[in-house]
Amino acid sequence: MMKSNTTRFSDRVENYVKYRPGYPTEVLDCLKSRCGLTQESLIADIGSGTGISTRLFLENQNPVYGVEPNAEMRAAGETLLKSFPRFHSVNGTAEETGLPADTFDFVVASQAFHWFDQTRARQEFQRILKPGGWVVLIWNERKTDSTPFLKAYEKLLLDYATDYQEVNHTRITADDFQKFFAPSPVEQLTFSNEQIFDLPALTGRLLSSSYCPNVGDPGYEEIMARLERIFTENQSASTVCFEYDTNVYLGMLKS
């Protein structure tokens, strides 16, 4: 049975905080050069989770409203970002943010857009954006076939993960982006990113995914045994590497 989109990460928060990748600073550079991002640009980070992308903008001195429906993820973000006075935590969804209209310079969704009702989210983003505001959709997309390890890891997910294929964000197509931003054009940019893991960290990275059987779930022992074997067969200096393409989609919804 499919898990609820707003609660499926509730039992993954600790591993999510520790083992999910951040975003390269080149993302900020491209927003500055292409979209006019400044330190005073007001950011709505939708589906902000534990605050990984929120931190990127807060460290750029931006005021950020992090909108997150999952109570556990939102609480983790509030704890991790409490030292940033320009951070504001909001209990809301992409479809009903609770934010004021015609206010924000940027609406950002990092590793989250594939969970949204795209039609309703588009209407809500249009409502809260200023004229000339930008929508920025970001994913760290794990490469699946660039190394023997990544090929084996992908096979692990296909064999053992519960609903991996159903919720995989790569199911979103270029047509989906074109439809979301239409009639405005959408621009895609790609940057390199990576994480290096020892076996405990690799285990935590897998367990941060909502489609992985968790401790005590059916299939947990089997997926962990396969993971350890894959690590042993592919490690170098007791580590393996996750390679990512950080893909950024830019566009306007208001002229």
TrEMBL record:
<dbReference type="GO" id="GO:0032259">
    <property type="term" value="P:methylation"/>
</dbReference>
<dbReference type="GO" id="GO:0008757">
    <property type="term" value="F:S-adenosylmethionine-dependent methyltransferase activity"/>
</dbReference>
<comment type="similarity">
    <text>Belongs to the methyltransferase superfamily.</text>
</comment>
<dbReference type="InterPro" id="IPR013216">
    <property type="entry name" value="Methyltransf_11"/>
</dbReference>
<feature type="domain" description="Methyltransferase type 11">
    <location>
        <begin position="45"/>
        <end position="137"/>
    </location>
</feature>
<dbReference type="InterPro" id="IPR051052">
    <property type="entry name" value="Diverse_substrate_MTase"/>
</dbReference>
<keyword id="KW-0489">Methyltransferase</keyword>
<keyword id="KW-0808">Transferase</keyword>
<protein>
    <submittedName>
        <fullName>Putative methyltransferase YcgJ</fullName>
        <ecNumber>2.1.1.-</ecNumber>
    </submittedName>
</protein>
<dbReference type="InterPro" id="IPR029063">
    <property type="entry name" value="SAM-dependent_MTases_sf"/>
</dbReference>
<dbReference type="Pfam" id="PF08241">
    <property type="entry name" value="Methyltransf_11"/>
</dbReference>
